[in-house]
Amino acid sequence: MIARSQSLWVEWDTSSFRTLKATIMKITQEDKLKAAAWLGLIPDGENPLFIFIQTHKHLLIDIISGKIDNVEMARAEMKNRGLDLTTGKWMGWKHEGLSC
Predict the structure, then answer these.
(1) Which residue, 73, 74, 90, 70, is CA-closest to 82?
(2) Are 98 and 82 in contact (CB under 8 A)?
(3) In angstroms, what CA-CA distances link 74 with 22, 24, 66, 84?
(4) Is the dihedral of CA 48, 50, 56, 60 positive or negative?
(5) I want to staple 82 with a disulfide (CB 3.0 to 4.6 A). Which of 24, 38, 66, 93 is the partner?
(6) Residue 22: CA atoms inside 13 Å, Cβ hemisphere, count?
(7) How far lies 84's CA from each of 40, 77, 87, in Å?
(8) Each residue of 60-75: pLDDT tens digit?
(9) How far apart (Å, rounded) are the C-alpha atoms in residues 28 and 38?
(10) DSSP string over 3-53
(11) Beta carbons of 100 and 93 less than 8 angstroms apart
(12) Selected residue with higher pLDDT from 63 and 11
């Protein structure tokens, strides 16, 4: 394969191409989110990278060890906000047995 890089022609052999492809495939979700944040494509408040930014290390340890269930905590927060658990639409605090 031959590719043009700026004004320089570069000849790629098959192994170089496979190495480049493997490198591209290793781009993680974290890398993509960092790039989106840097480019201003995702607001900080919606970027999963910042979910735990103010969380104390002891809570993070409890999450990692399984003592705290993050999914259950997210469900509780959605209910506390009066939001439907699947759509995020406002349902009110009296929905699902919640009261103000």
Answers:
(1) 90
(2) yes
(3) 35, 33, 15, 12
(4) positive
(5) 93
(6) 6
(7) 29, 11, 6
(8) 999 999 999 999 999 9
(9) 15
(10) EEETTEEEE--HHHHHHHHHHHHT--HHHHHHHHHHTTSS-GGG-GGGTTT
(11) yes
(12) 63
The DSSP secondary-structure symbol of 1 reads: -
Per the CB < 8 A criterion, the answer to whether 54 and 62 are in contact is: no
DSSP 8-state secondary structure symbol assigned to residue 56: -
* Among candidate residues 87, 88, 80, the one with its CA nearest the CA of residue 97: 80
Above 80 in pLDDT, residue 5?
no
- Please name the residue that has the structure tokens 């900080």: 44
User: Do 37 and 47 contact (CB within 8 A), yes or no?
Assistant: yes
Copy the structure tokens of residue 47: 């970027």
* pTM attached to this predicted model: 0.59
Amino acid at 86: T
